[in-house]
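Reopening this ticket.

The earlier resolution said the output was attached, but the attachment link was broken on my side. Pasting everything inline this time so it's all in one place.
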Amino acid sequence: QVQLVESGGGMVQAGGSLRLSCAVSGRTFTVFGMGWFRQAPGKEREFVAGVSWSGGSTNYADPVKGRFTISGDNAKNTVALQMNSLKPEDTAVYYCAAKLVPTVYNKWGQGTQVTVSS
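Inline output:
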């Protein structure tokens, strides 16, 4: 089994920055990739950013491109999301996720709240 534990959420004013971290433990050798998702009140969970666990390639959702940066360290078993120039519409619960099969995120952390005030 793989366990994911997020940290680093909180409240910040618009234009500010936050850094989320996710600690990966357990059978980490089964991880193909890691990602961050978010879910705002009344909305569906959406993809934010992803990173491959081997080559380090990254991809981002359009709303966060140029503002958020995902980084993974498979030696330390951590993945981080640096969020800059935050906007009120970034307010959501952010979830760390793992791909335990090549194409699907199928393991989730408990989530951490990010609130951006205007």
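Reporter confirms the inline version is readable. The chain has no helices and eleven strands. The CA atoms of residues 12 and 116 lie 5 Å apart.
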